[in-house]
Design goal:
alpha+beta; globular; 3 strands; 5 helices; 14% strand; 3-stranded antiparallel beta sheet; 67% helix
Amino acid sequence: MTTTGYEAYESAGALLRALSAPIRVAIVVELGEGERCVHDLVEKLGAPQPLVSQHLRVLRGAGVVRGVRRGREIAYSLVDEHVAHIVTDAVSHARENRQ
């Protein structure tokens, strides 16, 4: 196996670890529909603001989301739409297996 191939596996593993928490999956699903501020995510997910902010930090650190300051708020969006597809497929697969 080439080093480059193994590095790709390491990167994929890091991405999957970043997506391992259900709330982070929910955040990615929301951001897949468009840019959101923390208060939008708090309202939609029904989670406390500090918890949402903590998970956004993890996703930002993993390179999944980016934040752009808009006045007093930060608008978050996905860095890459591929992640939205991965998460959407995983959620669809999980729903199919429950029926």
